[in-house]
Design a protein that fits this description.
The protein is an alpha+beta fold and 435 residues long. 41% of the residues lie in helices and 21% in strands. The chain is built from nine helices and eleven strands. The strands form two sheets. Strands 1, 2, 3, 5, 6, 7 and 9 form a seven-stranded mixed beta sheet that branches. It has a four-stranded antiparallel beta sheet with strand order 4-8-11-10, with no helix packed on it. Strand 1 and strand 2 form a beta hairpin. Helix 3 runs antiparallel to helix 9, helix 4 packs antiparallel against helix 5 and helix 5 packs antiparallel against helix 9. The two termini are 83 Å apart. About 6% of the residues have low confidence. InterPro entries: Neur_chan_lig-bd, Neur_chan_lig-bd_sf, Neur_channel, Neuro-gated_channel_TM_sf, Neuro_actylchol_rec, Neurotrans-gated_channel_TM.
Length: 435
């Protein structure tokens, strides 16, 4: 008897459960049938904005969710991101016309976006085509209790933006994605961004770019015939420069340092070949840098300007090397001109050493005469003492052409390393400080 009573209770509960779900399923069917009657049997109604009918525009809220940065292409000037738009509005056409008796047990229903009124949103700065944002894969959620409509399409945005490669590879880029409710003026639709930033909670990260700032705003602008609302979503990203530093910047710095050592390569071991190889390598590196940069004249990358200058330095080194090699191979019978000998003495500080030697001799003579200044070669009594205190003059050594060439090699080696160091400091320090 007890078992029969328990079985009967289970059957009653099962019947109530199935009946409740059948009742709810029937309510959903009724609501979908009424929505189909309102919109799809009167398709012109889908072009009418479902506002409250009191002259106020329909508020459409927009929130941007970002999933990933697929790429930033500086050469073509575009950025590709995977996002979803959270669009919310209230459909007063459905809310006023659906029978209230059908919504007691229904919290929401899902329908195709094409079977209900949806705003005609377009991305104005799309690099492919200006088309309506739509997707059959994502349903529209409608709440019959208050008329709230929610649509979350996930889309791939490819927007155009102006890259700024001045501080490449420590560059920061900023791109904007501008949406508009096409062909709807401010009296029909008002765009609203409830939050001032994007939702990055589902962002997957990127190995090249790091998000530094996001911003959302709306504004009104005239489109020629009437004023319309626009939604502008800004994103600022910063490059992670380690890959470019290791594979591009470091070889450029090493090659710039190696170019100056051209003057230390022996003439018989292919000095001119070494210089030309450095020059051609700079040409190759310049072409490699240009692969990362857009084909614009302004603003130019400081790294590209640095490589061009180093390439010009390499060309100047090659030209000077040709002349120094001619000096190495000059006939030994030809005398070195006086002006070139004076220049060599200047760069080797021989003039300074001769002046210092004369100064030391003068101090010794002054010390021997107890501070009394006498003529050169005389003591305080006027007696000649040149055999005791006078330093015999050094014999004048003739300067030959190989010595001139060796001295010029050292001079140009130090000069070019110094100049390259100065240029490297003034070009690369601003790049590092901008990171």
């Amino acid at each position: 008897m007890i078992h029969l009573r328990n079985a009967l209770c289970c059957l009653i509960l099962l019947a109530l459960f199935v009946g409740a779900h059948t009742y709810e399923r029937n309510d959903v069917t009724n609501i979908l049938y009424e929505m189909d009657t309102i919109y799809n049997k009167n398709k012109d109604l889908r072009t009418v904005v479902p506002n409250d009918g009191y002259g106020d525009p329909l508020n459409v809220t927009m929130t941007m969710f970002i999933y990933s940065i697929n790429g930033f292409y500086a050469v073509s000037g575009q950025m590709e991101i995977a996002v979803s738009l959270n669009l919310v509005w209230y459909d007063y056409n459905l809310y006023k016309k659906i029978n209230s008796s059908s919504i007691k047990n229904v919290s929401y229903v899902t329908v195709f976006y094409s079977r209900i009124w949806t705003p005609n949103f377009v991305l104005l700065n799309d690099v492919q085509s200006v088309e309506r944002i739509n997707s059959e894969s994502y349903y529209v959620t409608y709440s019959p209790k208050d008329g709230k409509v929610t649509w979350n399409p996930r889309i791939i945005l490819k927007g155009s933006c102006s890259p700024n490669m001045t501080y490449f590879p420590f560059d920061r880029q900023e791109c904007s994605f501008i949406f508009s409710a096409w062909e709807h003026d401010t009296s029909q639709i008002k765009l609203v961004t409830p939050v001032s930033s994007w939702d990055t909670s589902m962002y997957e990260g990127n190995g090249v770019w790091e998000i530094t700032e996001t911003k959302s705003e709306t504004y009104v602008e005239s489109s020629g015939q009437f004023d319309s609302y626009y939604a502008k979503f800004n994103i600022a990203i910063k490059r992670q420069p380690l890959f470019v530093l290791v594979n591009l910047v470091l070889p450029i710095l090493l090659l710039a340092a190696l170019t100056g050592f051209c003057f230390l390569v022996p003439v018989s071991d292919g000095r001119i070949t070494y210089c030309i190889t450095c020059f051609l390598t700079f040409v190759f590196l310049l072409q490699t840098v240009e692969q990362f940069l857009p084909r614009t004249s302004y603003p130019l990358s400081m790294l590209a300007i640095y490589v061009v200058l180093m390439m010009l330095f390499s060309a100047v080194v090659s030209i000077i090397t040709v002349f120094t090699m001619r000096l190495h191979l000059a006939p030994s019978k030809e005398k070195v001109p006086k002006w070139l000998q004076f220049f060599l003495k200047t760069i080797k500080c021989q003039i300074c050493r001769e002046y210092r030697a004369k100064r030391e001799q003068y101090e010794r003579e002054k010390l021997q005469t107890n501070g009394k200044v006498t003529f050169a070669g005389q003591d305080k009594y006027g007696i000649s003492n040149s055999h005791l205190y006078e330093i015999p003059p050094e014999p004048v050594k003739e300067v030959d052409w190989p010595e001139v060439a060796r001295s010029l090699d050292i001079f140009f080696f130090v000069l070019f390393l110094g100049v390259q160091g100065v240029f490297s400091f003034f070009f690369l320090v601003p790049l590092g400080t901008s990171a």
